[in-house]
Each structure stands twice: as structure tokens, then as C-alpha cells.
Request: fold
Amino acid sequence: MKTRDVPHTETLFDGDEPEDTLPCAVCRRPVKSATAKHWIRIINGGGEILHPSEFGKVEVDPMGDLGEWPVGPDCRRKFELQGWTFKADHDGWK
Ligand SMILES: [Zn+2]
Reply:
């Protein structure tokens, strides 16, 4: 199974999320979910990103499957998550 660690950042956002947002998977700053361009699938209780090429091919432990979360453009670039993100045209969590 192709995975990598979810990057950690020192600048975790710690405040109320505005309506219609989800926290960025890396820094937790609010990202507008309806217009978020980049998403990652988080598994293993929040510790790992599942590579999009594995979607539908591997079995994920449902107990540790946190679903899909947006990644802000800054975090995507900073932590080189290109290739690990996918585009979604829905509200993420499903
Ligand atoms: Zn972020």
C-alpha cells in the first residue's frame, strides 16, 4: 500500500472554523470546502495519506479511515504533496 506520513506543521490554526469550511489536513486553517481544489485521503487514524493510485485497489481499515480532507495550496506546495492530492467536486467527507 502506497502511503506517506501526513506532514506536521507548527502553525496549527486554533480557532472557530467559519461555516462551509473544513480544516486543511496539514495546518488546520479553514479551507472553503465547496471550492477546495486539492484533497487527500487520510487513513490509519490520521497518520497517513493514501496515494490516489491506490483508491479502489486496497482495503483500508474502516476504523482508521478519516476520509477526504482539503489541503490548502500553500501546504500542498510546501510539503510537496503534488501527486498525493486529487481533485474533488463534492463536499469531501463521504
Ligand atoms: Zn494548510
User: Anything to note?
Assistant: Strands lie at 3-5, 21-23, 30-32, 39-43, 48-50, 67-70. The chain has a mean pLDDT of 88.
